[in-house]
Amino acid sequence: MQMQIIDTPLQDVKLVQPRRFGDDRGWFTEVFNEQTFEAAGLPRQFSQDNQSFSTKGVLRGLHYQLGRPQGKLVRVLSGAIWDVAVDLRANSPDFGKWAGFTLTAPSATNPMELLWIPEGFAHGFLVLSDTAEVLYKTTDLYHPVGDRCILWNDPQLNIAWPLEGLTPSVSSKDANGKLFAEAELPPVE
After folding, report:
1. Where is the active site (predicted)?
2. Please, are residues 161 and 153 in contact by the beta-carbon 8 Å criterion?
3. Which residue, 54, 20, 25, 63, is CA-closest to 132?
4. Which residue ranges form the domains of the chain, and what is each CATH number?
5. Is 106 left (phi over 0), alpha (psi -120 to 50) or beta?
6. pLDDT in tens, 82-127
7. Using one digit for the tens of pLDDT, what is the confidence trace for 38-76?
8. Are β-strands 26-29 and 20-23 bridged in parallel, bridged antiparallel, or unpaired?
9. Which DSSP letter does residue 181 get?
10. Among this protein's residues, is 136 annotated catalytic?
11. Catalytic residue among 64, 136, 142, 143
12. Is 123 among the catalytic positions?
């Protein structure tokens, strides 16, 4: 098996751990393989790659799209983040639930981990390290008309962000996100 697919507390959200091959010179891994992803029930085609660079305490999210929902395959290239997925699928047993995951850049001691967040979820992250670079592949293109944001500190969701003395730095868009109870959510399929 080229990669391990690990279930998470949220239905359909998966941790992906590619197998690494290494020696004293370093390591090699296959991050994406169309056949392996398809066999694991993950998407085999992506439409767009996005990369962000952020400093400690930057909090991005909780973002999602209507009309052209995006599944996201999230990977940390440098640093560490706390990544959050919120299930917005009204017909899901996990509707309104969230899960958080510490993702770090791979190193000699840290395995490579990617987080698969399917369509119908909101996504956000908090930078834990001095800086972090995050790369995520999406299953559809950015659709500005459908772009939506739920307030990162929504009291109903009650996400336990690991702020530990940090005052999060958020964009004006994210600071003005909708409350979960008032948000326009994806239609029930």
Report:
1. 63 (proton acceptor), 136 (proton donor)
2. yes
3. 54
4. 3-22+31-182 (2.60.120.10)
5. beta
6. 999 999 999 999 999 999 999 999 887 888 899 999 999 999 999 9
7. 888 899 999 999 999 999 999 999 999 999 999 999 999
8. antiparallel
9. G
10. yes
11. 136
12. no
